[in-house]
Amino acid sequence: MKLDTLAVHAGQRPDPHNGAVTVPVSLTSTFQLAGIGKLTGDFEYARSDNPSRHALEDSIAALEGAAHALSFASGQAASTSILSLLVPDDEVVTTPNVYGGSYRLFHNVYNKYNIVTVHAEQSSPESIQSALTDKTAMVWIESPSNPLLTLIDIAEVAERVAKHRNRKGVKPLLVVDNTFPSPALQNPLALGADIVAHSCTKYIGGHSDVIGGAVAVNDETLWQSLKFYQNAGGAVQGPMDCYLLQRGIRTLPLRMRKHEENAYRVAEFLRGHKHVEQVIFPGFEDFPNHHLVKKQMRGLPGMLAFKIRGGVKEVEQFFAKLKLFIMAESLGGVESLLCHPASTSHAALPESERNKIGITDNLIRVSVGIEDAEDLIDDLRNAL
Ligand SMILES: *Cc1c(COP(=O)(O)O)cnc(C)c1O
Q1: Burial class, 265, CB count within 10 angstroms (exposed 0-12 / middle 13-18 / buried 19+)
Q2: From the CA of 320, how far away is ligand 1's center (Å)?
Q3: CA-nearest residue, atom 1 of ligand 1
Q4: How far apart are CA 189 and CA 24, in angstroms?
Q5: Partner of 199 for a Cys bridge, out of 29, 126, 140, 179, CB 3.0 to 4.6 A?
Q6: Domain ranges of the chain
Q7: Is the CB of 143 under 6 A from ligand 1?
């Protein structure tokens, strides 16, 4: 079935006992056993598995075209379980502009277990390939990246990684953080990735009312390992949150179309404004690697960034004048949000590192919501 249909129906079987059309929220921590070692139904203890999470995982797997998905308490919990696959002395190769929280997890948590992260010189398949060593066990990329929306050819990275063998004689695992495009716009497993990671907090949930995460894989052994870490670590998605996410998913493809339409309108407006130094939007024909939008995506999310003329003072004045856009971290909700990456999502990066990759003090990231584009543009025009 096609995406719009899967979004509405996948994981949404009517309840076999009473026909409830929407999956009931399963508020139980445990399930009665029929005898020693005998389950009554499919479930035993809710951390290991439960009907609400099972339905959500089926739904995310269907949207990613994956054999399996697992859901977690946050995007970072999902990332943590993926990194649990590594052992001391393993290396992770990533790009310079990876999500700030991933950067922190690599450098301030896993580094102390002697799992070392190496940043490729650039966000390019060639650069990633040259960073691979006999210790590389994992390659971690994002496209479009946060916050500069850098595009990287996922299939080409997958091809180059597939040729590499590390000291254990195995190919490094390719992980794609697919949060920005959401499964509605890009499916990395079909492009050769081994693991897809999501912060469901963003477009999948879509209403800025839940924190969640997910991973999707095709490989059975990989799924079993990740499922083991999901249960062992226990950072699982609660049943109420599973319900909210599944409710969000039903309108995901619909929302993404409106986010995209509005993003084009807002990007065009900003590009022509005299107080704007630069607009970063992958939809522009002259955006680096713009051809990848058609090659590997079904459209664009509502994400763009721009550099206002000036510095922190001008950013602050601009933010203070906005009436509709809300200044907040996060993205992907129905309401339009603006943030200042240098002091929020990427504050974990040293300043020198930030400037090097273009996260300057005058950079503003925009998550364009699904309001009327005219109202959004009026608000920006007034504040600028
Ligand atoms: C938000 C985000 C994360 C982390 O997700 P949480 O749900 O906040 O833990 C990871 N990757 C990207 C690209 C994100 O935007």
Answers
A1: middle
A2: 26
A3: 199
A4: 30
A5: 179
A6: 3-249, 253-383
A7: no
> CA 366 to CA 75: how far, in whole Å?
20
286 is catalytic: no
Please indicate whether residue 202, judged by its CB atom, sits closer than 6 Å to ligand 1.
Answer: yes
d(CA 179, CA 347): 20
CA distance 209 to 200: 11
Whether residue 45 lies in the annotated active site: no
pLDDT interval class at 354 (50, 70, 90): confident
Fold category of 253-383 in CATH = Aspartate Aminotransferase, domain 1 (3.90.1150)
How do residues 215-254 score in pLDDT, each as one tens digit?
999 999 999 999 999 999 999 999 999 999 999 999 999 9
Gap between the Cα atoms of 325 and 253, Å rounded = 23
Q: What is the CATH number of domain 3-249?
A: 3.40.640.10
Instruction: Quote the pLDDT of residue 346.
Output: 78
Q: Averaged over 338-350, what is the pLDDT?
A: 85
334 CB-near residues (< 8 Å, 6+ apart): 206, 207, 208, 255, 369, 370
Q: Tell me the CA distances in angstroms from 161 to 93, 124, 158, 166, 273, one per residue in order.
A: 11, 12, 5, 10, 42
Which ligand 1 atom minimizes the distance to the CA of 211?
7
Phi, psi of 21 (to 5 degrees): -75, -40
Q: What is the mean pLDDT of residues 111-135?
A: 97
Place of tokens 């066990």: 137
Residues in the chain: 384
* Ligand 1 within 6 A of CB of 11: no
Mean pLDDT of 103-124: 96
Q: What is the pLDDT of residue 10?
A: 96
H helix or E strand, kind and range, residue 253: helix 252-271
Least Cα distance to 308 among 296, 319, 297 occurs for: 319
pTM of the model: 0.96
Q: What's the 314 CA to ligand 1 centre distance in angstroms? A: 28
